Amino acid sequence: MRSAIQDLPxxxxxxxxxxLSRFLKIKKEKTMTERVNVEISSGNVFADIGIPxxxxxxxxAKLANSICxxxxxxxxxxxxxxxxxxxxxxxxxxxxxxxxDGFSCDSLSLFINTLRQTLRERLVLNI
Length: 127
Fold this sequence. Notes:
Largest sheet: none
Strand content: under 5%
Distance between the termini: 56 Å
Order of helices and strands: HHHHHHH
């Protein structure tokens, strides 16, 4: 950082009105001396960290992400999404926060289809 300031032409420093290096705290850069082991991912983070049933967990996470995207795209509140899906607001909150143990892939897929249909109907009514 210091050398970058010192490398600035004097004209630039004069435009600012003072030498900036006096006012900046310059920290010495630390060099990394410790080796770090890196492991290539399998493509499923849940499998990589040893979660039971990683394929199902990944599928649920992707489905929940789609639900979140639809809620955001539709500018829905959690309460509105809950009403559309016939759930409690707390259940929508669980989906958004990734607490998916109480939901099957089938139910999450059904929620996606219901939200898509509702948003399509709203779009048609607004045209």
